[in-house]
């Protein structure tokens, strides 16, 4: 039979608590309802509502934050690497940054999205706030890849046009910046699914004595 006691009494008595339902029991070693090993009051996991509103440290990698930092850092690095290169009768290579400054304005979405992810981590610190930013994070994870893909297809079309005009092969090769942008999307997408999600509680199952 469950017996409700005050915190002070629980800390100095044999009353133990279920880590799932948080009900106190006296004279028992496991919860009769959930078959879990009972624990002292001080070992109870924090309440879900309290955890949701507790701010994480800025440098904490928990709850998907580390994955988001990794993806954002790779995205920013990719912006300074080659988008694509041409070989054959005509040779040329340009970084995402160089193309963004000239004719491919859409490529500015790459660094903007990377910085936006870092701003989310700086301003959204509680699990509740992180979960509320998932849609934005997923959108920012996809925008760089889409803009790079659009630009790569444009370079490929230009290579085909040059081949037709010059009557000689001009080959297009996808650059390291493009590949890194697409790779960086993976940890950011995974982070978007994990942001603000509490890790599963580890509780001990009770043992039945025969």
Give a quick summary of the entry.
Helix content is 50%, strand content 10%. It has 210 residues and is mostly helical.
Keywords for this entry:
two-stranded antiparallel ribbon, disordered N terminus, 3-stranded antiparallel beta sheet, 210 residues, mainly alpha, 8 helices
Number of strands: 5
Report the portion of residues in β strands: 5-15%
List SSEs in N-to-C order.
HEEHHEEHHHHEH
Radius of gyration: 27 Å
Number of helices: 8
The residue ranges in which pLDDT falls below 50 over 5 or more consecutive positions are 1-12
State the separation between the terminal residues, measured CA to CA.
Answer: 21 Å
Helix share bin: 40-55%
Coarse structural class:
mainly alpha
The overall pLDDT average reads 82
| Order of the strands making up the biggest sheet | 4-3-5
What would you note in describing this structure?
The structure is a single chain. The protein is mostly helical. Helix content is about 50%, strand content about 10%. The strands form 2 sheets. The protein has a 3-stranded antiparallel beta sheet. Strands 1-2 form a two-stranded antiparallel ribbon.
